[in-house]
Design goal:
The chain is an alpha+beta fold. It is built from 14 helices and 28 strands. Helix 1 packs parallel to helix 4 and helix 1 packs parallel to helix 8. The protein starts with a strand and ends in a 15-residue tail after the last helix.
């Protein structure tokens, strides 16, 4: 019996398998297609997602295939700027806030990583056609096989048309916002001056223009009806549509596809030992570039909790997956719908009113907008200030090594103490943290280099100064479990964590709890 079966082998399934495999669990992946999809779908990911890819060990390999984008424009048909989003070259997670990618490159990199894990088995051309709960796990029936695949838990990452979700009878909350689009992807063969990230809010023809990394570009056109796609997809018609930006001597047309975006959230993300992730759990409009990012967040949330459960924690811990992630997903969907209605407005009179309103707002403010997303909903965290929010990542130095925190000091549960004034945890508290598998670090003044860690970029000092907290404990998915205003409260914080993640039969010892 496997520890976990992952159904679906897109980026979310790959990340889930890699995270669990690196944690030491036996994983089987069941993918219905015989090969990787090998065509682009997602185009964008953010600094939080890149921090996950760095945790997996593929960030440096990915960087040459990516384009870092600093702004995102929304213009009307006359070219006037309506909305502009600004992205930092180095964001709160220590990486650029917006990367443009060509998805097949990402999938090739993730696939190579997963195939290098001896405890992960990948079965392509393995279409799941049934699941059955057993006393110890789930039996999964694969088409054409007389023998079921048995696993203690299942993570279904099988897409928007998820067989698993349908088999389980899980309904979906439909926001009612969906539109048909024609997606045209190009491989660049010569120099161009195409906008890298622009939404053209023209009521005559809404258009999306998005870079897919250094060598590829995407033009998407809203269709009056999906029925018009067979005519509009003809290559000559596509080239005529993009003629103002690109010609046949500058690019190769890779594919033309029709795509109807949806705005859906599954009613239940867990059914017994089966969890839904990525598009199987939620689908959102593409205007924020958060679809794949949301799925990678699911993978992170599920992986460290399943790790704990597989090591003996109460599996009620898995109930916190949906309670934490759903409010975040719904906030992104709501914002995506808001922007999508700006983009897809077809009434010329209403569009003119929209333009006047948005231009006036820009002139009154004059600053680009920043994308902001909420923290976690209730779940595996306490109620202290900052709990449930992402912990920023900065550059640190420790024992002569300098770099991003994750790279220098590792990952997992981390307890960081503000030790700039000399404060430190007593030995018993440090030992209690070690029994839980929590790494303890003390932030020191820049001048002190013999003990603790040095805050090279000042990220952590500014965080402590701004929040007034004395210690912060964050989780393997980079979200804050809890904080304390005084160090004497740290033991209580660790006890709260132990209640949720320690095996029920005996206290965990170092290395037996959730592993970094």
């Amino acid at each position: 019996m496997y520890d976990v079966a992952v159904i679906g082998y897109g980026p979310v399934g790959m990340a889930t398998a890699a995270l669990l495999g690196q944690a030491g669990h036996d994983v089987v992946v069941l993918e219905r297609y015989p090969t990787l999809y090998n065509l682009p779908r997602a185009a964008i990911f953010d600094d939080e997602t890149m921090r996950t890819f760095d945790r997996l060990g593929i960030s440096r390999e990915l960087l040459p295939t990516l384009h870092v984008q600093r702004n995102y424009e929304w213009r009307n048909g006359a070219g006037e700027l309506l909305i502009e989003h600004d992205f930092a070259a180095v964001g709160g997670q220590g990486w650029a806030e917006w990367y443009m990618m060509y998805q097949p490159y990402l999938e090739d990199t993730l696939d190579s990583l997963v195939r290098g894990l001896e405890n992960v088995e990948i079965r392509m051309d393995a279409r799941v056609n049934g699941l059955r709960n057993t006393h110890h796990g789930v039996d999964i029936q694969v088409e054409g096989s007389d023998t079921a695949v048995s696993a203690r838990y299942v993570v279904a990452c099988d897409g928007g048309n998820s067989f698993t979700r349908t088999w389980l009878g899980v309904g979906q909350d439909d926001y009612g916002f969906s539109e048909p689009w024609m997606v045209c992807d190009f491989r660049l063969t010569g120099p161009t001056d195409i906008p890298k990230a622009r939404q053209v809010c023209d009521p005559k023809q809404p258009v999306s223009i998005i870079s897919l990394g250094p060598r590829h570009h995407r033009f998407s056109f809203m269709l009056d009806s999906a029925d018009s796609f067979p005519v509009e997809r003809e290559p000559d018609r596509v080239w005529a549509r993009v003629a103002d930006h690109i010609g046949r001597s500058q690019a190769e047309l890779v594919r033309v596809a029709t795509y109807t975006f949806r705005s859906l959230v599954a009613e239940h993300w867990r059914s017994g030992r089966v969890l839904l992730a990525g598009d199987a759990a939620h689908q959102m409009p593409p205007f924020l570039g958060q679809g794949m990012c949301s799925g990678i967040r699911d993978a992170q949330n599920i992986a460290f909790k399943l790790d704990a459960v597989l090591r003996g924690a109460d599996d009620a811990l898995l109930d916190t997956y949906q309670s934490e992630r759903e409010p975040h997903v719904r906030a992104i969907i709501a914002k995506g719908i808001e922007l999508g209605r700006v983009q897809t407005m077809r009434d010329p009179v209403a569009a003119a009113e929209r333009d006047a309103r948005l231009i006036a707002l820009r002139e009154a403010d004059g600053r680009p907008e920043k994308m902001r997303f909420p923290g976690l909903g209730p779940g595996l965290r306490d109620e202290s200030p900052q709990a449930g929010h992402l912990m920023p990542q900065g550059r640190v130095e420790s024992h002569g090594t300098e770099g991003l925190f994750d790279e220098v000091l590792g990952r997992g549960f981390v307890l960081l103490v503000d030790g700039r004034a000399g404060a430190s945890l007593d030995a018993s508290t440090t030992e209690a943290a070690a029994r839980l598998g929590v790494a303890v670090h003390h932030l020191t003044d820049r001048r002190l280099t013999t003990e603790g860690i040095t805050d090279v970029g000042g990220v952590y000092g500014r965080w402590f100064d701004g929040t007034g907290r004395a210690a912060v404990l964050w989780r393997p998915d980079f979200y804050i479990f809890g904080t304390t205003g005084v160090l004497s409260d740290v033991p209580a914080l660790l006890t709260t964590l132990a209640t949720a993640v320690e095996p029920a039969q005996a206290p965990a010892t170092a290395g037996e709890g959730i592993r970094p």
